[in-house]
Amino acid sequence: MKVLVTCPPMLGMIESFRPLFARHGIEVTAPRVVQTLSVEELKTLVPRHEGWIIGDDPATREVFAAGRAGQLRAAVKWGIGVDNVDFDACKDLGIPIVNTPNMFGAEVADVAMGYVIALARETFDADRGVRAGHWPKPRGISLSGRTVALVGFGDIGRSTARRLLAADMRVIAYDPVAPAVPGLAVERADWPRRLEEADFIVVTCSLTPSSHHMLNATSLARAKTGVRVVNVGRGPVIDEPALEQALKAGQVYSAALDVFETEPLPMDSYLRTHPRCVLGSHNASNTADAVVRTSEIAIGRLMGFLGVE
Q1: Residue among 234, 240, 244, 301 flagged as catalytic
Q2: Is 48 a catalytic residue?
Q3: Distance (Å, whole) CA 108 – CA 291
Q4: What is the Cα–Cα distance from 246 to 249, expressed in whole angstroms?
Q5: Residue 309 has pLDDT above 90, yes or no
Q6: 227 bridge partner residues
Q7: Same domain flag for 148 and 95
Q8: Which listed residue (213, 263, 274, 293) is catalytic?
Q9: Domain holding 240: CATH number?
Q10: Are residues 174 and 47 in the same domain?
Q11: Active-site residue 234, yes or no?
């Protein structure tokens, strides 16, 4: 029996998981994946395997139909986000599938908090200056007393809120479905109300039809001049051209982005050139601890679907 793995963090540690697969009598296919494979690549690979552990690939109806016409029997979406997976197609085609929620809220929140600090104190500017042979003294802003508009209050959002509150920041959380958390002193608002109060906008939410381009030209214009933007959620939650224009105009002072509308980030993107942009590689969840924890659960769930002891 063969299983295809296309999740980059898991692929980065794939040798450590081969013995676990081998104990189940499974042969693993581990292609080279930078961020995702194309639909055409997947249509070639997926049908050759009984199981598929999915990353951020375009897991479309077309891909699942090709898989079902071949050997595909079950799939697991590695991680939290499922915006790239057609679950309805799986249901229609009789392909069991599940994701692995609540696996790395703390890890992503750590990166979100690191980005908030980096933008507040402009540590990236000092780093670049020292590397260039200079000795810059960027004058940042203090965190205490600043207000954060936190977009998303799920596992990642709640973990981020705890870190922000520990820094004596004020948090306004936006999430239409997440319940209140006793003991977590955040304020709640409906998007985009009270956005003008925020010194930082921190995006942690998943991508859904309602969250697509939530942060756009209209909402950015509503924010206070000089707001700082962090995104560790999904790239298309932010209208990237609108963010670029806001950076050029100074409406947004700086931005730290782990995710983008197109990944990898195109070489001609303006974001690469802006001096106050900190750029990531959709990597906020990628710690050895989180990858092992999530991968073991993904493997276990896939083996259960395949009926492998």
Answers
A1: 234
A2: no
A3: 12
A4: 5
A5: no
A6: 252
A7: no
A8: 263
A9: 3.40.50.720
A10: no
A11: yes
